[in-house]
Amino acid sequence: MFVVRSMKPSRKPGPYFFALFVLSACFAFTFRSHHAQTNVEYDIVIANGRVMDPESNLDAVRNVGIRGKRIEVISATPLRGRTVIDATGMVVAPGFIDLHSHGQTDENYRFKARDGVTTALEMEVGVSPVAAWYGERDGKSLINFGATVGHIPVKMAVMRDTGDFLPRDNAVKRRATPEETRQINELIKRGLDEGALGIGFGINYVPQTTRVEIFELFRIAAERQMPVFVHLRHAGGVEPGNAVEALQEVIANNAAAGGALHVVHITSTCLRQTPVCLQMIEGARKRGLDITTEAYPYTATQTRIDSAIYDEGWQERLGMTYKDLQWVATGERLTAETFARYRKEGGSVIGHCIPEEISRLAAGHPLVMIASDGLIHDGKGHPRGVGTYARVLGFYVREQKALALMDALRKMSLAPAQRLEAAAPMMRSKGRIKVGADADLAIFDPARVIDRATFENPAQFSEGINDVLVNGVFVVRDSKIVEGVKPGAAIRRTN
Ligand SMILES: [Zn+2]
Asked: Distance from the CA of 244 to the center of ligand 1, in angstroms?
């Protein structure tokens, strides 16, 4: 219409002219849509897979066309691609987002990728200094990575604790002076300025930290609209100083400071009181607080034997004894003698103390996200660092029927992405399969997917996760790591 009117006709255009115009417009339209279906070649096409998107609840056989790092089309009709993989019988899911991934090395990223994880974030212990940490991984990572600024590493640096990863002396045994507290707060603010995704806490590891110190940091996070990720002050059910009391501390802080609170590994902290803890979180959410939580799908914990977790009274607190402890380096069960010796030497220990029914409850609970808490070093560690996601899909979804597949995918991808969106808007294009989303995908066989990692031999890749893409690049193909690719991008605060 505009074209016709803007022309300066010497005479009125007759009906013949209009017919020609309409015809050519129709032809152009037909040509374009025909072109879209047959002539466009995408970089990668995932053909005939069962596409499951927890945001739209799409669960249907579709073809996914990827160009560059993005999903460009999701189509019921066939697509052409330079690389086409046939995903018949496979589930095509958003890549998993691990909010609690201590292992931030190439070794860990490889185990993660084979478990379907496309984004691994160190949100609990966190890091410091933040800019240097990101700098070491930019352009060199198999999967996406990111971190909070950690209260623990900052406190260890300021108080000159000699611990490695977790504190063991100055930050554990004495209070911070007012001057040290001031320095800690400054370093945390600097970390947030450098793009950290929030503040990470492990209060249980630095038990001399006062409630005022913690509240002050909750306020700093809330002021900047950044979330806090917290390992609570206490674990287990023994009064006083149990997990419920510790959860009350952070819920009260959140109510008073505002902001967003994520409570890490609810099962390993609350143990048999997990149902009460979940009730408290659910109630707080109903009253308008922004509180979320997570769990890993295993019945044992792992931490350092020389940390405050194993201070006097651990047996009563955690409801276990020496034989429930397994030394990571050798796989042996401990005795009073070996416990005393290893506690002096230091190192990682697994604690078999989470009841199976508690683990199952959390796996199936809609409020509880899946996060691994994993850390593998030279093939040693807790199987959660290797098999968490395949275990939920194979053991809890398929075998135990503790939850539906779509709900599991939501707890592994969409929910963690949403948790971070306010702090990192880039997460809006992750955790979903939709046009315009980042092509972070996990393609797995729902009939075969299962974890293989065990407490005795954790370094065994998950099975049934055939193909994984990170930002439109295959990092796993036909159940093998693709060598030489580093498509992982930094997840950091950009607003
Ligand atoms: Zn923890």
From this structure: 16
Dihedral in degrees, nearest 10, Cα atoms 302, 306, 308, 309: 30
Question: CA-CA distance, 486 to 255, in Å (whole number)?
Answer: 41
Rounded to the nearest angstrom, the distance between the alpha carbon of 317 and the centre of ligand 1 is: 16
For ligand 1, the distance from its centroid to the CA atom of residue 231, given in whole angstroms, is 5
Bridge partner residues of 477 (DSSP): 480
Separation of CA 433 and ligand 1 centre (Å): 31
b/e for 72-100, b at 16 or more Cβ within 10 A? bbbeeeebebeebbebeebbbbbbbbbbb
Q: Please write down the HEC assignment for all residues of 119-133.
A: EEEEEEEEECCHHHH
Q: How many other C-beta atoms are found inside a 10 Å radius of the C-beta of residue 233?
A: 25
How many angstroms is it from 27 CA to the middle of ligand 1?
Answer: 63
Centre of ligand 1 from the C-alpha of residue 124, in Å: 7
Which amino acid appears at position 383 of this protein? P
Determine the distance separating the centroid of ligand 1 and the alpha carbon of 57, expressed in angstroms. Answer: 32
From residue 365, alpha-carbon distances to 282, 294, 353, 359 in Å are: 11, 10, 20, 10
**pLDDT tens, residue order, the chain (495 aa):** 333 333 333 444 444 444 444 444 444 443 334 344 557 999 999 999 999 999 999 999 999 999 999 999 999 999 999 999 999 999 999 999 999 999 999 999 999 999 999 999 999 999 999 999 999 999 999 999 999 999 999 999 999 999 989 999 999 999 999 999 999 999 999 999 999 999 999 999 999 999 999 999 999 999 999 999 999 999 999 999 999 999 999 999 999 999 999 999 999 999 999 999 999 999 999 999 999 999 999 999 999 999 999 999 999 999 999 999 999 999 999 999 999 999 999 999 999 999 999 999 999 999 999 999 999 999 999 999 999 999 999 999 999 999 999 999 999 999 999 999 999 999 999 999 999 999 999 999 999 999 999 999 999 999 999 999 999 999 999 999 999 999 999 999 986
CA 330 / ligand 1 centre spacing (Å):
22
Task: Quote the DSSP letter at residue 324.
Answer: G
Contacts of residue 458, Cβ cutoff 8 Å, sequence gap at least 6: 376, 379, 380, 381, 382, 383, 385, 386, 387
Q: How many residues does the chain have?
A: 495
**Dist. CA 205 → ligand 1 center (Å):** 9
Kindly list the protein residues that place their beta carbon closer than 5 angstroms to ligand 1, a single-atom ion.
231
- Give the Å distance between the CA of 23 and the centre of ligand 1: 68
